[in-house]
Amino acid sequence: MTAHYWCELAWLGGPRATQGVVIAVDDDRITAVCAGVPVRPEGAVPLAGLTLPALANAHSHAFHRALRGRTHAGRGNFWTWRDLMYRVAGRLDPDNYYRLARAVFAEMALAGIGVVGEFHYVHHRPDGASYDDPNAMGTAVAAAARDAGIRLTLLDTLYLHGGLDAALGGYEPLRPAQARFGDGSADRWADRVERLASTVSGPMTRIGAAVHSVRAVDPPSIKVATDWARERGAPVHFHASEQPAENEQCLGAHGVTPVEVIAQAGGLGSDTTLVHATHADDRDQAMIGEAGASCCLCPTTERDLADGIGPSVGLARHGAELCLGSDSHAVVDLFQEARTVELDQRAASNNRGVFGADALAAMATSGGCRALGWPEGGRLEEGALADFATVALSSVRMAGADADTALDAAIFAAASTDVHHLVVGGRTVVRDGRHTTVDVAAELAAAITEVTAP
Ligand SMILES: [Zn+2]
Fold it and tell me: In this structure, are residues 249 and 278 in contact, taking their beta carbons and an 8 Å threshold?
């Protein structure tokens, strides 16, 4: 049966919204988009405000949400933050991880996010021994996304070493806090992920590969993970050049940058996404662009962790595809991620207007869908996934916006709470600003208390 939605305004691409758009949906696909319909046709679901393709959150660690409010203050840096993060990781089990991840994914739904890439590395028991089902944790994450009503690309992460230090002889063994992340070898990782892919893949769930970083994975193992993904047409993601110390350790051990290690191991291609790339130099940026790879910028996390401002302008100039992630969930608000990409450049360069609202909106939608292996998502057109989010114009932030200004207002001023409707796969997940099945704040509070209580 065909469902019809009438959008007061819809973003169909370009710098402005279009007035009066009917979206026809059959099952989980858009079957027609018709512009120039000034009055809602009878039977069509009214979507007051600006309707966009559902947002795509290309980089998430769901359990980091439990750290919000607990790690922002005080001194320190990425490395001191990491110690706190490991403490929460040590408390997770398949049951509490399911509850926490479901609440976090439901928070994403409220923010207009229809698909998330979960960079998942908490695989085993805290001492490193397997659960009876070696994929108990990944299965819990997949169930959490399904029950929160959003799409998931589960980026199952290869994590083998505790660090990289030339002075200490190269790769270090996993530390006790990291034991549960590791599979022992890339081949054992591939066997486990193959089983996971065969059990959880479906209309709302896809499996991709991830390589934690060049600190945690050696070049031959990078090749195993990349080959696994390529043979299956799956995306492969890497944390890369997030920190100056990572570049220094990599240069000391390998004589080249992290991006070049990945390239030399065969890991750089159009299905590759490098997360952060904050300290990628000009040569790195050219390699990324030449490969047609994506970079996932996570500016609210990068500034929270004092990582630095990523080279978004250089990456775009060299032809890299850009997308966005909320990563540590310091906030879950892709409008804020998008505007920060541009506003950071203004603050650093004394120039305005590098990325327009349409380019930033594309990062938050089609760019993320591409990086997560859903190329049929992220646009409002015939044949695309029936995934769309509507931003109300009635909030104090959006009041006064019209067809000419609504896209700029949403990207530069909206908050995630201005999203009041979300459809994913043809199903309504958020209606009138409320999740249809999850009491999000209550479930977040309960799940976070469970993993952080003394
Ligand atoms: Zn990350």
Answer: no
Model confidence pLDDT, tens digit, residues 385-401? 999 999 999 999 999 99
- Please say whether the dihedral angle defined by the alpha carbons of residues 145, 424, 333 and 399, taken in this order, is positive or negative: negative
Domain that holds residue 17: 2-53+379-440
Q: Rounded CA gap, 344 and 303, in Å?
A: 10
**The last residue of a domain, from among 371, 394, 422:** 371
Cβ partners under 8 Å of residue 85, min gap 6: 64, 67, 71, 328
Tell me which amino acid residue 29 is: R
The mean predicted confidence, pLDDT, of the chain is 95
Any domain includes 430: yes
Residues 43 and 107 placed together within one structural domain of the fold: no
Residue carrying the six token digits 């108990």:
136
Sheet of 2-10, strands arranged across? 29-35, 18-26, 2-10, 45-53, 388-391, 419-424, 427-431, 434-435
Q: Is 124 a catalytic residue?
A: no
On whether both 115 and 234 belong to a single domain, the answer is yes
- Quick one: pLDDT band at residue 180, thresholds 50, 70, 90? very high
Which among 120, 276, 329, 421 is annotated as catalytic? 276
Q: Active-site residue 327, yes or no? A: yes
Spatial CA neighbour of 387 closest among 45, 46, 150? 150
The CATH number covering residue 214 comes to 3.20.20.140
pLDDT tens for residues 387-442? Answer: 999 999 999 999 999 999 999 999 999 999 999 999 999 999 999 999 999 999 99
35 shares its domain with 70: no
Looking at the structure, do residues 66 and 35 belong to the same domain, yes or no? no
Q: Which amino acid is at 411?
A: I
Q: Is 138 in a helix, a strand, or coil?
A: helix
Residue written as token pair 């049929």: 376
CA of 303 to the centre of ligand 1 (A): 13
Which of 321, 348, 371 is the last residue before a domain boundary? 371
- 118 alpha carbon – ligand 1 mean position (Å): 9
Give the whole-angstrom CA distance, residue 418 versus residue 397. 8
